[in-house]
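Predict the 3D structure for this chain.
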Amino acid sequence: MLCGTMTSVLDQKRRVVLPSDVIEELGLSEGSEVLFEKRKGVVVMKKAGKKEDRLLKAMSWNPKRRGKPSPVKEKEIKEIWG
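Done. Predicted structure below.
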């Protein structure tokens, strides 16, 4: 488990070399995808899951409705779909 503080330097192309401890802890290798999330003002990096897992997570998102949906008139639908 990682602990303590590690630093790295941004190069001219805004790339960062990850410390080997981080690479090992996350199980990263060349071509690995990583996700960056902002949580309460802190950016968290983690190894991306399988694309199927990310798709299922996105599809399961169910935001709460705000307000009441307004009915759409047939004329408006015809204008949209021609």
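The first helix runs from residue 20 to 26.
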